[in-house]
Amino acid sequence: MEFIRMANKKLLITGGAGFIGSHVVRLFANKYPNYQIVNLDKLTYAGNLENLKDVEKKSNYTFVKGDIVDASFINELFAIHKFDSVIHLAAESHVDRSISNPLEFVMTNVIGTVNLLNAAKNEWKENFSDHRFYHVSTDEVYGTLGETGMFTETTAYDPHSPYSASKASSDHFVRAYHDTYGLDAVISNCSNNYGSHHFPEKLIPLSIHNIKNNKSIPIYGKGENIRDWLWVEDHARAIDVVFHNAKSGSTYNIGGHNEWTNIDLIHLLCKIMDKKLNRAEGESAKLITYVKDRAGHDLRYAIDSSKLQKELGWTPSLQFEEGLEKTVDWYLDNEEWLNHVTSGNYKKYYEEQYTKR
Ligand code: NAD
Ligand code: TDX
Predict the structure, then answer these.
(1) Where do the structural domains in the chain lie, given as residue ranges?
(2) What are phi and psi of 107, to 5 degrees?
(3) Which of 60, 94, 134, 146 has the fewest CB atoms within 10 Å, measured from its CB?
(4) Active site residue 181
(5) What CATH topology corresponds to 10-197+230-257+299-318+346-353?
(6) What pTM value is reported for the model?
């Protein structure tokens, strides 16, 4: 089925300086020396070129700083580079920030995506068949599950947060450009990722940072919400497989069959941290603090990724306990990275998000 594994692809990756994007850039830059990869990123608080130190000197890799909301800049970028494919990850990605500032999410996640779609459509309209627009999305577009069931590719969209509503909207635009103009487009919807280079506003890296510094671990509500966690490098491998092999217009769910309540996950993390920091067992768990719940907090996400497994042969590679331990090791070994990203504006964000709860 090999779709577009051509010798000299000109690939635009957006959001490549962020958490998942940096893993995708690293995988592609190492695995496909003949691809010319341009990483376009605005370098918001979440974008960090330190995430890409090991690839920045590669001859097949170029970084461009820019904003996907700026349509004329995007059109010019497409005209200069003549991309034949796009993997679009740039987004505002944090649910709590979307609750405080929804418009920012509309701008980047909706308008930014439509700007990229327009540029791709205009550049590729003579020959859509040798081009591909891959939109990286989330399981949160499907809303929330009760105690049973799983999200499949045909689950109806039912987003609840401004973040998931903006991602759902962008998914609809991608499908509309496929159906209306014939753009070759594919979408994947993935569950919660974890691993290295994850910004410490999200549950796992925030908790690692706080445990290390003997600060309280804020658990929203009763800690009973369930997330389905996937090792970020397994997501990057899935993106590789979908990008090269999916049929135009198709959608794949990506997930690890790995559901945890937040509180169970944090207890496991505390146990690992006690061991790594030579603390008595149970010491880190004393930091657990229940705080006011997130507004509109989705109860449970669980992804059925059997379509991807059956059709394209992808499977997750890592057990959660092993992945979480590797993640903790990375954060403990990369103190400088953590210090850089938690200086400056992070402290202001943290105070606004947590001390007023
Ligand atoms: P992230 O917040 O770590 O990174 C986002 C990147 O996009 C940053 O480098 C940022 O600088 C860049 N960016 C933001 N606004 C931009 C703009 N206007 N123009 C150009 N660049 C901009 O996010 P992430 O967790 O790596 O998520 C990447 C993608 O994967 C997102 O589309 C997200 O919705 C999706 N996703 C994330 C998860 C997860 O668990 N983190 C799960 C499923 C899907
Ligand atoms: O301090 C916290 N305390 C807490 O209890 C934080 C930051 C989170 N939580 C809870 C909320 C969620 O139930 O932990 C769970 C995970 O929260 P986040 O790490 O903020 O992730 P989530 O809201 O599930 O969304 C993530 O997965 C899907 C990503 O941020 C999205 O970009 C992705 O699309």
Answers:
(1) 10-197+230-257+299-318+346-353
(2) -60, -60
(3) 146
(4) no
(5) Rossmann fold (3.40.50)
(6) 0.98
